[in-house]
Automatic annotation (TrEMBL), chains A, B:
GO terms for molecular function: metal ion binding; prenyltransferase activity. CDD domains: Trans_IPPS_HT. InterPro entries: Isoprenoid_synthase_dom_sf, Polyprenyl_synt, Polyprenyl_synt_CS. It comes from the Bacteria. Keywords: Magnesium, Metal-binding, Transferase. This is Polyprenyl synthetase family protein.
Amino acid sequence: MTASSSALRAPADAHRRASTVRFPVDAGQVLDRCRTLVRPALREAVERTHPWVGEMAAYSFGWCEVGGAPAAASGGKGVRQALAVLGAEAAGAPGRAAVPGAVAVELVHAFSLLHDDIMDGDEARRRRPTVWKAYGTGPAVLAGDALFALAVETLAAAPQGPRAVRLLSVALQDLVRGQADDLLFTTRPWTGPERVRPDEYRTMAEHKTGALLGCAAALGALLGGAPPATVDALDRAGRHLGIAFQVVDDLLGIWGDPAVTGKPVHGDLRERKKTYPVLAALDTPLAGRLAALLESAADPGEAAALIEEAGGRSAALTEARRHVAAVEAALADVPLQKGPAEELRSLLDFLVRRDL
Amino acid sequence: MTASSSALRAPADAHRRASTVRFPVDAGQVLDRCRTLVRPALREAVERTHPWVGEMAAYSFGWCEVGGAPAAASGGKGVRQALAVLGAEAAGAPGRAAVPGAVAVELVHAFSLLHDDIMDGDEARRRRPTVWKAYGTGPAVLAGDALFALAVETLAAAPQGPRAVRLLSVALQDLVRGQADDLLFTTRPWTGPERVRPDEYRTMAEHKTGALLGCAAALGALLGGAPPATVDALDRAGRHLGIAFQVVDDLLGIWGDPAVTGKPVHGDLRERKKTYPVLAALDTPLAGRLAALLESAADPGEAAALIEEAGGRSAALTEARRHVAAVEAALADVPLQKGPAEELRSLLDFLVRRDL
């Protein structure tokens, strides 16, 4: 990912662009439409695997309870499948052309959540026990592997299969790199030459979150017959979207309204997470004081105030806005169908811009 | 896999065939030659991933110690890479044509060992701590994922990529199915309608061990430009080889000489493993007595004697010989280059037949 000069366009300009849309698109409706389109093929893919493993997969998608009884739990927003469908539509193809790609990226996303929850020891996701907590670590490892294998199988069988699998494999490598760096960040000190720099964090977020979002949109475009420049532009847009989303998530993790985020106030500070605002603040002369506060049992409100004083909050806002602008620039860089492009922008608004 | 009538050919016939080879091929030399051919590309693939994850992968291949210092530990025999190389050569192509396939199957094999060791709680492999024991469960999950992703990436970039990835994805699905059944077998009773039948065990072994061996040989043939009938025949040969290997391993796990196997005598009985000889014996009127013995703290030698009395040992021998004959039949079914075909047969001898 390279930041072009247009990536630094001020957010005000981006808002002006959005305000020219006469009929604002409802992102929730877009997500619902794409979920409905992709769901049958996603279910069919999960049903291809071993029934026991398939139950764990279905549980992770919110389709069933432990034991297999039907459920209607939240299986996530389905952003990746929507990006794939809109990628195809933006290239002038029917959304159904993207379905194998949409299925593959949702499967890969579910696989990575499943394995990441094991690595991070997270016991709950979307208000339910995580798969490893509900079924055991070994079975959860296997269920993740199955989802991964189903994703590869689905894409390999698609038209444009070879190029599609290559796109996916790049994202898979990036996912591993991002998760490896994220795990290693926890072992590094707050200050000194071994500290985590904001640019390392940006690379981690691009790999861990952006790569699969970019792959989703790019796969949709590829399966929709788009030229390489369009595929690349959508990949780039998704990568910037991922970084922006991650940094906004970091901002909400410190200063978000618990009533909106559903997370405790200052939660990320209590958990001593190395998030963008913290790392940016640690890159200033206030680093020593902040590190001492983060390590102490002091009220995390004090640390939050110091991060703000050190400019960590505004640096994160600037960073997020820069990547939102880069998404806009990438979308403006290539010819896209107007309607689907607006729907893509509605997802961008939904995911990050309303919080900036 | 379907058992053809030729799959039931008596082993005596197979031995007569082997005895017509004037210059017996040394399987160790074949494995060494293929390992030397594939090693540089395998190392290059592992070096493409995150350095920390790459170290875990290199450790699992026996190339380094924890921390990265060079080592020359046993990384396994490399049977899968050899099958791929010989598959290409048997199709008349140079062995190097198979290298992407050979790398992919070795990566997938390493991935599956790594994750299986987590699921099975195994703490040692090839006289060293397993990756999860040495690096932690979370990192080992990630290292397995990385190996999996590298395998897909390697194959997707190869000529014949699309068909090659489809072949691999079939094997991956089978690996998951086999491991799922193997895990579930441990929870099922020794007797009664819920017991594990020998034919279920055979399917599990084909999936867990045979699918990747078949995929290896088939991928080599495919990358070597072989016609579909040859690719299919080699896939079938590898699947039968996997079942035969597994059943022979089961026989050695009960009656093998500890000085040869490096495993304790009756080890599989002490661990209450549901192996082929046990399951065959449980399919007889002696099932009740045997189940009681297996569950008791009695000398496992008694159980071994009862399994033999019930015909479990001879049933397993018959089963293994049947699949060895099926390998021979599959290899005889299609035109193959004489030298590489003999080398393939030397691997068969090396892996299973010397023990029958």
